[in-house]
Amino acid sequence: MENRNLPAVAKQGLQPIESVNALPPMSVGLRPAHTDDLLSQLSQALALVGSAGMSADDREEWLAAACIKLADVPADLLAEGIDYASSVADHPAKIIPAIMAEVTESWERRKRLARPITPSHLSIEPPREEFEYCSPEAAAAIRKEFGI
Fold first, then answer.
1. Domain range holding 65?
2. Number of domains composing the chain
């Protein structure tokens, strides 16, 4: 199924593939699947669970909603999720939850690892207030006491 067959609302929710080129290099694992791949894989998954009871309009509407929901999922995770969903889902309504159950943990880990470390992420303790600095006079007295 091509993008032109999707309802306008579905097209609005999909990112054009060019926008992912703006991702920082560390975010390569976060690049979303290409829309054509997404549609192709979802169509296969839908066919496997027996969408025979769905009209063409119902299938198109389901694919549009699924594309919007999965538009940001990286290509490799999407493939893993669809493989998993194809083996466990027995109804179209179970496909997206199965995909998300399979990929969410890995996807969240990638997002965490891709975040830049900024000073707000570092835990630096401020100096304790009870700490007393050694004055030059006190340092001189210590040096004299210990023969330094």
1. 3-117
2. 1
